[in-house]
Predict the 3D structure of the following.
Amino acid sequence: MSTTTTEALSATTLLRFATAGSVDDGKSTLVGRLLHDSKSVLADQLEAVERASASRGQEGPDLALLTDGLRAEREQGITIDVAYRYFATPRRRFILADTPGHVQYTRNMVTGASTAELTVILVDARNGVVEQTRRHAAIAALLRVPHVVLAVNKMDLADYQESVFAAIAEEFTAYATELGVPEVTAIPISALAGDNVVEPSANMDWYGGPTVLEHLETVPVTHDLAHCHNRLPVQYVIRPQTAEHPDYRGYAGQIAAGSFRVGEEVTILPSGRTTRISAIDLLGKPVDVAWTAQSVTVLLQDDIDVSRGDLIVPTKDAPPTTQDVEATVCHVADQPLTVGHRVLLKHGTRTVKAIVRDIPSRLTLDDLSLHPHPGQLVANDIGRVQIRTAEPLPVDSYADSRRTGSFILIDPADGTTLTAGMVGESFASPEPVKNPADEDGWDF
């Protein structure tokens, strides 16, 4: 890559996006088409796909093979794991997460879409909006993904009829709006034929909107963590105790959101002690200010107790600390989450003991109704939980900060991730429910 090209790419913005949809809706084919038609596939990769396709008796290359990396995926023709792909055009750089469509792998979409600024949800034009479509829309809404693209695929198998596309777009948009999705862009496509993926379709002259790639290149990236509440989770305490640095004490971590500058008054949570930033080291050099996603070492004016798991925040914008966490969750483990379940709660760099005090409701995806007090959540369920932690936690609302408003629940016995949680209110918020008495002796 030339120096000019490198400089051009460094000046473009970055979009993280995820794909989702039901089985055989064509997610991997769409991703393969995007990579192929945007000239983001290496020659040897394309040759390997052509050989694999020919061995199956297919006339042309099966572009889905560009993303189906697991052997089981290639054999079954499905996506099982989240496949990450990196590509770029002259206008923007992309990190793409191709997520599975099978119901039992829905939990993988939570992983792929948790950092996405846009989600592409595919629908087969012949089948329309199905339960898995609604599930993916619900997860996108829960994760506060600011942009959703409805890609109505396989329009070639529906004779490119505008009425088919319009009916599906209307039904999905109404459902997504009820969920609180802020923006839906519907695009009719044929991933296999390439219609409206990178190039406009000659078969659908009734459609005057953007292609998928054009929309990806031009959608505004508005979910900017640099404008969220300033938060720095402490990952590691650095004390060299060398002759060169006998008194150096720095607190290292990646800035989760916002920015920090030298001289700023900060509070250490959960202790609540206040001090000022005396210096910031970035890549071994002192700087006056540091921003989101930069890994820094912060030095404080006062010698106070700070350790891994603490959160450095501006004194004037400190979140409340609490031991009672209410959240909307997506359960991702095969074992159920039950009332009274003893878990570990990981929030940022801090992990504490916790107990599930109540499960007020489980979401029914068909009509968005709430099933009250189900007693447990099973794999792929979405519901509300009330959790009591052993120690106070400084948590933001997920609506305010996706980084510091999220957490995971872990099985303390084997370290299995049980549940992904989003703190605060959501479309699944139930009526207030009184906490039941904790009778098992693990009372905080």
Summary: The first strand starts at residue 13 and ends at 21.
